[in-house]
Amino acid sequence: MINPHIFKAYDIRGIYPTEINENAIHEIGIAFGHYLKNGLVVIGHDARLSSSSLYSAIIKALKGYSNELSIIEGGAMTTPMLYFLVGRRGADAGIMITASHNPKEYNGLKIVKKEAEPFSGKDIYALINNLSNE
């Protein structure tokens, strides 16, 4: 079960691996894939030690959910670069693995919709709850 306290107003973040980990990221990826159904998603990650593993977990979850999702694997990049790519490529969403300004033991996700419009962590949590109630 995912810790509900990691879902914030503008992002998802927690201490790795106790509050946020590959299993939580997988569940978040499945819920977000269910929401998107198809389209184009840009995914990137920062330089934190845990980011590569979480990046792989979200890609695996999205690819496992649907082959109708196209994924641009951006690799290591900054959050503004991800936002730029979402807009430039006309993507339906973007997912950045980052805990932003938080200390190194944290990690998380910033998720955006078209035109890099923020998708709140609380909305993602609602997607997970709705999916588990289906």
UniProtKB/TrEMBL annotation:
GO terms for molecular function: intramolecular phosphotransferase activity; magnesium ion binding. Transmembrane segments: none annotated. Its cofactor is Mg(2+). Gene3D superfamilies: Alpha-D-Glucose-1,6-Bisphosphate, subunit A, domain 3. It comes from the Bacteria. One of its GO terms (biological process) is carbohydrate metabolic process. Keywords: Isomerase, Magnesium, Metal-binding, Phosphoprotein. The keyword Magnesium applies. InterPro entries: A-D-PHexomutase_a/b/a-I, A-D-PHexomutase_a/b/a-I/II/III, A-D-PHexomutase_CS. SUPFAM superfamilies: Phosphoglucomutase, first 3 domains (SSF53738). The keyword Secreted does not apply. Belongs to the phosphohexose mutase family. This is Alpha-D-phosphohexomutase alpha/beta/alpha domain-containing protein.
